[in-house]
Write a structure and sequence with these properties.
Distance between the termini: 43 Å
Number of domains: 2
Strand content: 5-15%
Strand order of the largest sheet: 2-8-7-6-5-3-4
Radius of gyration: 21 Å
Number of helices: 14
CATH topology of the largest domain: Aspartate Aminotransferase, domain 2
Number of strands: 12
Helix content: 40-55%
CATH class of the largest domain: Alpha Beta
Order of helices and strands: HEHHEHEHEHEHEHEEHHHHEHEEEH
Structural class: alpha/beta
Length: 375
């Protein structure tokens, strides 16, 4: 065994010893309470057929873009979809990225400069932290949704100040106090970068997210929308001023040097938003299931993401295993993904979950909580 393999094996074994080793699992036939397909668009046969019909009408028939947008990967269709997205999200312009991860990394690695300061919520997504790390700017986290801690750190920040937050946080399902943060940003002449990944599709007219639902889109400088969750497809876009989009095209390395999404992926994004506009009642179906679940578990989260804290990797894994044996696809979130002692079940509710499944799941979780939290 080479020295490299030996190093890798030691790191893997440590994960196994801590009972935090990850492994890929294939799709199963259990009742889905784990995917981010909040509105069911990823599995919609009707939407699938509409996408195929749209692709068939295009004169451009290609399997891939064969290059970045700046070379061979740009099309009139893509630019038209970007205009549609800017309208949906009530922004001046938008730019499509291959993923939300790439969009966050692009924004944070290219816009804040040396001498500037990035202030990000401590529970922000890994892509936000990685993007900040790639920047030459100073970077500091602030306590989760803590306005006092954020203000203390803004006061001692240098250069241009960027506040980076999420609409809905992926591990706890809670929302950012966006209205209060916009007021704080105005007071200290700071810029807001808002990741709308888990609110895209779920909130706002035509799925336009949290900022527009609160009529705060003009108070947020940069918004990132992800399509791989409620929209059921893949990709993301950044929304903001025309200057912002021109800047990213010129300075965002993940955009400049990555092969563009294939045309059928762009068609899928386009059709998904059209489908949602005709089926906006899916938002209410999801909201009804969230209300039902939270009433049974006495949860304070009002989003599709519900966190059930079961401290200890072994404990939470055992609970997840029991739920899976009973037919429910629920996964454990282990440390170090979350802090030690905050291991949890991450329940994702969907518009297509039945009333009976939601009630049965909540009742079983209540029973298992009693079993494992009183040990």
């Amino acid at each position: 065994m080479s020295s490299l393999d030996n190093f890798l094996q030691q790191k893997i074994q440590r994960r196994k010893d801590e009972n935090s080793f990850r492994a890929l699992k294939q799709i199963n036939s259990l009742v889905d309470f784990t995917s981010n397909d909040y509105l069911g668009l990823a599995q919609s046969k009707l939407l699938y057929d509409q996408i195929l019909e749209r692709i068939d009408t295009l004169s451009l028939k290609s399997n891939g873009a064969a290059g970045p947008r700046l070379l061979s990967g740009n099309t009139a269709y893509t630019e038209n979809v970007e205009k549609k997205l800017a309208t949906i999200f009530r922004g001046e312009a938008s730019l499509i990225f291959n993923s939300g991860f790439f969009a966050n990394v692009s924004v944070l690695s290219s816009i804040p400069q040396k001498g500037d300061t990035i202030l990000y919520d401590e529970r922000a997504h890994a892509s936000i932290k990685d993007g900040a790390r790639l920047s030459l700017a100073n970077r500091f986290s602030f306590k989760h949704n803590d306005l006092d801690d954020l203000e203390r750190k803004i006061k001692v920040s240098a250069g241009k100040k960027f506040i980076v937050i999420e609409s809905i946080y992926s591990m706890d399902g809670d929302s950012s106090p966006l209205a209060a943060i916009t007021k704080l940003a105005e007071r200290y002449d700071a810029f807001i970068v808002l990741d709308e990944a888990h609110s895209t599709g779920v909130l706002g007219a035509n799925g336009s997210g949290l900022a527009t639902s609160l009529a705060l889109e003009n108070k947020v400088d940069i918004r990132i929308y992800t399509f791989g969750k409620a929209m059921g497809c893949h990709g993301a876009c950044v929304v903001g001023s025309k200057n912002l989009i021109d800047y990213l095209v010129n300075f965002a390395r993940p955009f400049i040097y990555t092969t563009a999404l294939p045309i059928h992926n762009i068609v899928t994004i386009d059709c998904a938003f059209e489908f949602l506009s005709r089926n906006i009642g899916l938002q209410q179906q999801l909201s009804n299931n969230v209300a039902l679940f939270t009433s049974k578990l006495k949860s304070t989260s009002t989003s599709a993401i519900q966190a059930i804290i079961i401290p200890g990797n072994n404990n939470v894994r055992n609970v997840a295993d029991e739920l899976q044996r009973k037919g429910f696809d629920v996964r454990a979130i282990l440390s170090p993904t979350v802090a030690t002692g905050l291991e949890r079940l991450r329940i994702c509710l969907h518009a297509y979950n039945t009333h009976d499944d939601v009630v049965e799941l909540s009742e079983i979780i209540n029973e298992l909580k009693q079993k494992y939290l009183t040990k």
